[in-house]
Amino acid sequence: MQLNNNVTEFILLGLTQDPVRKKIVFTTFLIFYLGTLLGNFLIITTIKTSRALGSPMYFFLFHLSLSDTCFSTCIAPRMIADALLKNATISFNECIVQVFSFHFFGCLEIFILVLMAVDRYVAICKPLHYTTIMSHRVCGVLVAVAWVGSCVHSSAQIFLALSLPFCGPNVIDHYLCDLQPLLQLACTDTYVTNLLLVSNSGAICTVSFVMLMFSYAIILHSLRNHSAEGKKKALSTCISHIIVVILFFGPCIFIYTRPATTFPMDKMIAVFYTLGTPLINPLIYTLRNAEVKNAMRMLWSKKLVSDDKR
């Protein structure tokens, strides 16, 4: 369908056109991105090398950190580089690839968060059957389904994007390619496309959020019957997950469950869940998790010992 379009590239306005503010954007988000890579790389390395972190919860955390890294990487490098350019452009094909990768890893993160909630529900509400229900094979199948489901979702986004004809303005008032800003440029009635977008992305975000909040409400209610020590540990883990869920789903629901209209705060809200959440996740899961912190200390101690032997 691209052959029917007059537009071969788009101009990204980014967060600002002011040269001084562009330098601030470059510095700030370069630090954010490097922090995201460092934090998630530490979690991925720690889980992969530590035998103490072999439970399903950390298996899902590994995939969450992986999706966070990829999710941020499909947006941040271009955004940082564009801050140094006077006119930032992106080709039609690159735009479509960014739409696919952005939705793929964003959807994957949603599914992984759902799986983590399921894991906590079984661990707290069905402790005697936990090892049977959440076996390594079951966890592997669930994660595989999450990857396939994310691919189906992002493929639907690509289908919607390619169905839009672009014949006029090619200026995107955003720092990334997404269906919402692309709908503003399409030279056709986008009512049906926007309806499909809301029923796809909007429904995934909203339904998943409601399911997560409901499941954590059940989990917190069931903690009444646990011992003080068990209650404290489970409560700490659940609160960490709830914080992540609210920080990620709040902006997503705001963006994808309304008509294709642009508000001044849209770009800043998008920054929060595309770059902010992947940076915050490692902090929440390490600072509030004693097992991860202990495993990181052991990994660091082993590295120091190996360096001393050399």
UniProtKB/TrEMBL annotation:
InterPro entries to which the protein is assigned, alphabetical: GPCR_Rhodpsn, GPCR_Rhodpsn_7TM, Olfact_rcpt, Olfactory_Receptors
Entry keyword set: Cell membrane, G-protein coupled receptor, Membrane, Olfaction, Receptor, Sensory transduction, Transducer, Transmembrane, Transmembrane helix
Cleaved signal peptide residues: none
Membrane topology according to the record: Multi-pass membrane protein
Domain of life: Eukaryota
GO molecular function: G protein-coupled receptor activity; odorant binding; olfactory receptor activity
GO annotation, cellular component aspect: plasma membrane
Main location per the UniProt record: membrane
CDD domains: 7tmA_OR4A-like
Statement: the UniProt record of this protein carries the keyword Ligase: no
Residues that span the membrane, as ranges: 24-45, 57-80, 100-118, 138-160, 201-223, 235-256, 268-287
Compartments where found: Cell membrane
Function text: Putative odorant or sperm cell receptor.
Protein name per Swiss-Prot or TrEMBL: Olfactory receptor
Source species of the chain: Bos taurus (Bovine)
Top-level taxonomy: Eukaryota, Metazoa, Chordata, Craniata, Vertebrata
